[in-house]
Fold each of these.
Amino acid sequence: MLNNFKIYVINLKRETKRRENIIRELKKQNLLEFEIIDAIDGEEIKKSDLDLLISKNDKFINPINTNMNAPEICCSLSHVKVYKKFVETNLDYALIFEDDAVFLNDFTENLQKFIIRNFKYKKQIISLGELWQFYKKPLDKENEYEIVNVRNAVLAHAYFINREAAKSLISFNYPVKTMPDNFLAFKIYCGIKITGLNPFLLKQDKAKFESAIPRDNRLNQFFLFRIYIYRIMNKILKIFFEFSTHKKNYK
């Protein structure tokens, strides 16, 4: 493994099967040096404490919605916890996994080098999971893999992040404003370049592990104004550029 990034795994202490899953997956890829970060448990934290950890901005034009349930808030806090650990190191990049991630192909050293080589922006994330929408023309290509420019993505089970992006997310999402996979908001509000690997390298094992986060209010009303404008611009861009997706029935 390259020595300029560190691997972090987010896992609830009580979720032992999930921990076993991700450790097994990493060992299959000969990724033996990683740090397990104990996720913040929504079942153990008091509501009064959670209320102190979420944004209270109620602007009419550009509200920062706090209509998140406890598991959602704690999921975001857990990712922020990783960012804080990472920026205390002297490393340039972090590779972050959630514990339900499963590799679809070999994560070779050449592929690692290809990904790291494509950190070309001050603040950047490279997703290794499914992408909702990305430009068909790649930013870079090597063998069967491409690095692509992402328009939208919402899964955070496997991604690289650089130091400046991590610092920006600590500042932006603490107190919590949104979920850790709201990459569209991070792109618009933090100026983080969102890129991804095509084809994607990891999926979530939804058959074995049911999500602990209820999705009934997921991302409702977050940052309405700017995201609304972004989506209008997206429709215009689709006239001139060809987009691709990893998600079925996504337009």
Amino acid sequence: MVMVTGLALMSLDTYAQNSAGRNTRASTRQEKMDAWHRDMAEFRARSAAERQLAALADSISSVQARASLRNQDFVLEADNITFKNGSTVFVNSATNFISVKGDRAVVQISPSQFSSGPNGVGGVTVDGTISDQQVTRGKDGRITFSMNVNGIGINAEVHIFMFPNSNQATATVYPNFNSNTLWLSGTIVPYENSDVFEGMSL
């Protein structure tokens, strides 16, 4: 009888320990789940705030770019260039650009990182005076800036297209003395905010 009672007590004790273990594990799992939910909520809150800040920065950049375009005081800093044969190269925006300051424009194409080129920074730099400039706005919100650039090393028609609600832009350069059309893509920034490096002009 004593032995039976002892076995029963041992069984109850084991059951209690197992139940306590299950409760502890369940509590631990719940705590982990609660912590995960808190972390995700914080992450979503941070992500939303970061998206709002990014949208605000894009909006400010767009407004500044549009104003600088209208004032003829801007630089299109290109990060890629497409040539007439269809080949596209990614380039350094500090040395590949179209700048406009008042009635002066500079077009610099420096795709090479391995040779100095005529301008000393891997390509060609040409500058000239602007004429026949025009700014138009399409129904889709896209801004188009058109101009002729005439100088010793350049005689070209240039069209710059800036996308709506952005400072992203593309430009097409049509040389009047040959058919070597170029397409540049990049961002438009106010002239004073640009850190491009201008090489030696032709």
Amino acid sequence: MQKMTCASCGAPLEVENQFIRSVTCKFCGTAYMVSGSDTLDQVGKTVSLADYPSRLNVGASGEIRGRSFKVIGRVRYAYNEGFWEEWQIIWDDGAPPDWLEEDEGYWTVYKRDRVRGAVPSYDQVKVGQSVTINGRSVFITEKRTARMVGSEGQFSSVLPLAGSFGYIQGSSSESPVSINYWEDEIELSVGTDLEHNEIKTKS
């Protein structure tokens, strides 16, 4: 774990592991990009998050299907009809961080997948059609635009602090698939749906 200092308020910042790309100061909301082994580049400020009832919080730990994890970050996205939250989790076994998504009481753990080959643009995709992504057929069930409304903690991605982005969701061989069209990057994730009792948190 690397220990650094927030340039805005002087609070300590801790970078959990080598996969972290951005970190948000929990005291003043200043966001940084992790640019090297011991440097931080300030990228802006994020809005602090109001607490909503949830089983998780940054710093919480537990198990998913017997695999131990720790929550290191939380981000909230809003769209016209509501919002959803994603929790950045790290695994005790040293694997790269994953995302645990909570949306209307349903939980999905998403693993980022490297994009291989062409991906249809956001404008080309339509709900109800099937598209080929990384050699797999994905049936599109949702297409929206969203924006980030707040974050805390640290992340394996550099989050979009301003503006809106397009995202699509679908399914492939019963696995949920999510694509975020950031300004300069396409982020592809493949998920596993979880039952409520498969997430066990420690008090």
Amino acid sequence: MHLLIDKKNKIIIYLLLLLILSTTSGKFVENQTTYFSSVNQVNIEGLSSTDISKISYELNNLFYENILLVSKEEVQRAISKYNIIEEYSVKKIYPSTININIQQTKFVARLSNNDQLVGSNGKLIDDEENREVLPYVFGQFNTQDFLHLKKNIDQSKFTFTKIKTLYFFPSKRWDILTNDNILIKLPQANLPESLNLAYKIISSNDFKNKNLIDLRMNNHLIVK
């Protein structure tokens, strides 16, 4: 009878020890996961210190959030507010760091009415400190109108940096003025062919002392 009681006591003691150890271990793992999985550092590269500070402020809500639960969509909502960004990548460095590498858009033109800059991503950027010499754009255009023209110029023999001014008309047609003050009136369609033809004419010796190329009408060329 005495041996039976001792055996029961030992079993109870073992069970109590096992319960205590498992509880302690469970708390440790839980605390460890919470501590090491919480975001405590967000690194941003690729922009000026001013722009990095603005974006960092937008991402403050990520701090102390479980890094496993941070989604790219959550980061995108904050970053997409800034037109200066061309593209970016997000990388989680476990246990607690997020690295964001940003590629800034290139400034390709300047609006004539409010001095906003046009990025290569087609978005408008407010940057009063920029003093870069850029072509001026006149007219009410949208992103796709401008990007379509820019793509065609880049694929032609022209260099975009050799253009002084761009004019957009309600008929969705463009005029471009080169740095040499040569005005090229482009048609609505067939831009690649028209641009290359204009380049060929300008490069010809027969174009000396002329400053207008009108390509608006099909199968008609006017040079003045």
